[in-house]
Amino acid sequence: MVPTKRVYREVSKGKYELGEVIETKLSGNRFFVKVQYSDGTVKRMPRSHYSWLKFNPSFYFIPDGYVIHHLDFDPTNDDPSNLALITKYAHDAYHMKHKVVEVKIMIDDLSHEYSPYLEPLVRFDKKANQFYVRIMEKKHGIGRRRAVYTLNGKRFANEEEAQAFKDTIWPPEGQKAKSIA
Q1: Per the count of CB atoms within 10 A, which of 48, 57, 112, 141 is most buried?
Q2: Global pTM value
Q3: Domain segments of the chain: what residues?
Q4: Strand extents, DSSP E, 2-149
């Protein structure tokens, strides 16, 4: 495995050198450093990588598939006590907990990404003698109305079931939407 995020440079077999920081710059929302090694070569890297490796001498590089996570979510706070080495997968999963994910619902027995822009309404269809949920969604920038009569192939038996479905895809204030696919 060839590491891609090297801070230490191998000077001879089994001997590594930690370069010296010669410049620090803020770029975007994080700091980067230029590190100069004894042979004069210069490498640019995130300051968080340099800080974490400098204070964790058992590592000479950040292994592939791993990232440095800022525990306080501040990408400019590169204090070693604020940094953690975690897998990229765990890092992405951790941050995805804080993202809004679209709800998948079943419409006409097809999985469908639902992107609401107005609150759904529970209605009664007199001709079909059944309750349904009217949803308003945008698809490709065009708003459209759709009636949902079933959930996973089962018709809504009463108004309470239709209301429960509506609350699932458009939860009351302060609650999160649930995936029901």
Answers
A1: 48
A2: 0.50
A3: 5-96, 103-169
A4: 5-6, 8-12, 15-18, 20-27, 30-36, 42-46, 61-62, 66-70, 83-87, 103-107, 110-114, 116-125, 130-139, 142-148
